[in-house]
Recover the amino acids of this structure.
């Protein structure tokens, strides 16, 4: 089992920055991919960014150049640094983990609101 807990959400003005944290506990050695997703009101959940155990990174086009994903294995935490935020970034952000034996876990989500 893997448990994910997000933190760091909040309200920020357009152009502002936030850092989201995802603290991981449980069978962390089995996780090989961490990702961030988001879900805006009335929309489907969408993928935002991924970081692998080898620190390969990938980003959705909508956030490329503005968001940075990173991880600190010693702290069992990974991060989503968000800058130049726009109202379109308003959503609940979810942390996700995929294990080597194809099990998937989600955090409870953290709200990010960007005011215009």
């Amino acid at each position: 089992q893997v448990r994910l807990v997000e933190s760091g959400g909040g309200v920020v003005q357009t152009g502002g920055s936030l850092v989201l944290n995802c603290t991981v506990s449980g069978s962390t050695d089995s996780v090989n991919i961490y990702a961030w997703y988001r879900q805006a009101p009335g929309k489907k959940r969408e993928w935002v960014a991924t970081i692998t155990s080898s620190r390969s990174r990938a980003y959705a086009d909508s956030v490329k150049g503005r968001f940075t994903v990173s991880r600190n294995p010693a702290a069992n935490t990974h991060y989503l640094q968000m800058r130049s935020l726009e109202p379109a970034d308003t959503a609940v952000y979810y942390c996700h983990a995929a294990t080597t034996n194809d099990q998937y876990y989600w955090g409870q989500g953290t709200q990010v609101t960007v005011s215009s």
Q: What stands out?
A: The mean pLDDT is 96. The first strand starts at residue 2 and ends at 7. The two ends are 40 Å apart (CA to CA).
